[in-house]
Amino acid sequence: MKSKKLPGAIVVVTGAGRGIGAATARRFASLGANVVAVDINEESAQETATAFGGTAFRCDVGDVASVAELAKQVKMQVGPVDILVNNAGVGLAGPFLDTTLDDWTWLRSVNIDGVVNCCHVFGEDMVERQSGQVVNIASGGGYFPTKHLATYCASKSFVIMLSRCLRADWAKHNVGVSVVCPSVTNSGIHTRSRLYGEMINNKNLSDKFFATLGHSPDSVAKTIVGAAVRSRGVVPSGIENKLGYQALRVIPDSVLNLIARMGPN
């Protein structure tokens, strides 16, 4: 894939109301892109877009009709999309049997269906135009198992594999697909997650954990922009994720299982 030029490029960022999405929208805009901020919370999306004079739309990415209407309005009001960043996501943490199947349905509707819906609707136009770049946001949890993040890790593992398959499928159409895998990020996702278990439900502990160990959303945004411009494949973000991803090639399963059992409680 050729490197993408950002000045004048039309970039759609989902989950742009806060955290990684908002930081990504700002960074693309600072480099001259025409950014469309998308969020299920219209007020948050508008707040992000106002900061750099962009456009804002409300969209529930888990609803394919909502995504189709978004794509229609963006094309009519802004133009054909050059770069799509599928960032919208939610979290679910706790012992697996403490969570419910309703929790899984909720998580899946955003983390899996949301990515599939956006890839399908926006990707169709990109493939037809023989031009475009998709950047899906997964997580280091997509390749490193953690005992109390079963459904979350599973959803992000799906995003990684979907991205790799689409990258192979769409290469002949000059459409690139990247997947960025952040490590712990102080994005506020824990405040938008369903949490179970005594330790995980301790809000003060969660706030301290993310504030102390989390990378800044802007550091992840920088990685996302780089992945889009260079059409990179699987892109870990954060030094520990980069080292961990490389180490997976040599770590025995027994050690990986031990790490999973030692994961955050």
What this model shows, in words?
The strands form two sheets. A seven-stranded parallel beta sheet has the order 3-2-1-4-6-7-9, with helices on both faces. A two-stranded parallel sheet has the order 5-8. Helix 4 (101-111) packs parallel to helix 6 (150-170). Strand 6, helix 6 and strand 7 form a beta-alpha-beta unit. The chain is of the alpha/beta class and 265 residues long. Helices cover 48% and strands 16% of the residues. It has ten helices and nine strands.
What are the key terms here?
265 residues; alpha/beta; two-stranded parallel ribbon
Q: Termini distance?
A: 41 Å
- How confident overall, as mean pLDDT? 88
Number of helices: 10
Radius of gyration: 18 Å
The low-confidence parts are none
Main β-sheet, in a few words? 7 strands, parallel
Q: Please indicate the percent range of residues in DSSP E strands (runs of 2 or more).
A: 15-25%
Strand tally: 9
* Helix content range: 40-55%
| SSE order | EHEHEHEEHHEHEEHHEHH
**Numbering strands along the chain, what is their spatial order in the largest sheet?**
3-2-1-4-6-7-9
- Secondary-structure-based class equals alpha/beta
Shape annotation: globular
